[in-house]
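Ribosomal RNA large subunit methyltransferase E: structure tokens wanted.
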Amino acid sequence: MTKKPTSTGPGGARVLRTKVKKKRGLKDSSRRWLERHLNDPYVQRSKADGFRSRAAYKLIEIDDKHHLLKPGMRVIDLGAAPGGWCQVAATRIKSTEEDPRVVGIDYLEMDAVPGSAFLQMDFLDDAAPAKLVETLGGEPDIVLSDMAAPTTGHRRTDHIRTMHLCEVAADFAISVLKPGGHFLAKTFQGGTESGLLDLLKRNFRSVHHVKPPASRDESVELYLLAKDFKGRTGT
Ligand SMILES: C[S@@+](CC[C@H](N)C(=O)[O-])C[C@H]1O[C@@H](n2cnc3c(N)ncnc32)[C@H](O)[C@@H]1O
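Answer:
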């Protein structure tokens, strides 16, 4: 790897751009991914700010604009690893070690995040919904989902799998949220089925798509934000 000053950053400072040398065994697409990752300002910022993922900034930017996370709330974070969203949520709701009010779930391992509990299990497991609510110790004010299915290389398959996760997350949110609660979930441009949108519109007072600046322009990723849950009576 070599670092070359290739451009000027904020304040006119020279920015060192990391180039990954062409090597045998590293496919061109992997080399380009690594180069983009190493030069991504959000990746560099997340290291400096102590966040575990660049994804943390997506939640920060959405919350700064839509004011979802308030002290004292209870939060469920679906697809939590490596823990960036748990870090942001626990800090913003002022969750403590003594009374953790954030519960994350992922089938991958995750190091503990102060102020949050973690379940290492598949959210699609039948036992997961009850276990999440039991661990949280009450109904959530917010259900977050940044779940993404592992990529297969076949774009359409990846979309379908991630959309399925989004739909299951929406059903879960409707079955557990407190009235007035919110649901924020990863989806894809053009991917949200009208059935899912109708379901959310029937159950929440406002529903729209959001694309935070930290979500790369070239990515088809979007977030569905459903605010102000109407409650379960009449659903
Ligand atoms: C984009 S990452 C989440 C990043 C996280 N928001 C952060 O800030 O660190 C998506 C996560 O969803 C998880 N995931 C995908 N399908 C899942 C499932 N069925 N159950 C639990 N976790 C799942 C993946 O393991 C992955 O860790």
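Residues 2-39 form one domain. The beta strands are 2-8, 14-19, 75-78, 102-106, 116-120, 142-145, 182-188, 204-210, 221-229.

Cheers.
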